[in-house]
Amino acid sequence: MIIEGVVRRILQPQEFASGFRKCEVHIEVKNGEYSDVMPVEFLKDMADEAGTLTIGQQVRMRCNVRGREWDGGEKGWRAFMSLAVWKYEILDPKSIRETVIEDSKKNPPQVDDMPWDVQG
Fold it and tell me: Counting Cβ atoms within 10 Å, is residue 10 exposed (0-12), middle (13-18) or buried (19+)?
């Protein structure tokens, strides 16, 4: 499955007693006039890769859809799904800092915008 969207949130990596590691990242995907937020998981050695992402980056994630079930005893069986990232690419490699600098050059402050006298 391919998911394309914007990084909205990067959660803290988790490490379990077994040594298994994962890091969840939330991707905002445009769906018509609304947006969906998809949690994707970076597993094992890829958990460190999640830390290289930046909030606001445009990304394309290639994921495996995984499912599992859990016996909740008296509460019954439950089924869970997850999206495990196996490859990703950054579609807009500019950082937030670069974007802000670029936007400020397009709309420079006017002399009247300054709280002090610059002319004199």
Answer: middle
Average pLDDT per run of 10 along the chain, which is 120 residues long? 94 95 95 90 94 92 95 92 95 66 65 56
Q: Token digits for 51?
A: 């830390």
CATH of 2-110, picked from 3.60.21.10, 2.40.50.140, 2.60.40.420, 1.20.810.10, is 2.40.50.140
Q: Are 68 and 78 in contact (CB under 8 A)?
A: no
The CA-based dihedral angle spanning residues 51, 54, 55, 58, taken in that order and rounded to the nearest 10 degrees: -120
This prediction has a pTM of 0.72
The beta strands (E) that lie in the chain are given as: 2-10, 14-15, 21-31, 34-43, 58-71, 77-90
Integer CA distances (angstroms), 71 to 20, 74, 78, 80, in order: 22, 9, 7, 11
Tokens 């089924």 appear where?
Answer: 79
Q: Which residue has the tokens 């990703």?
A: 88
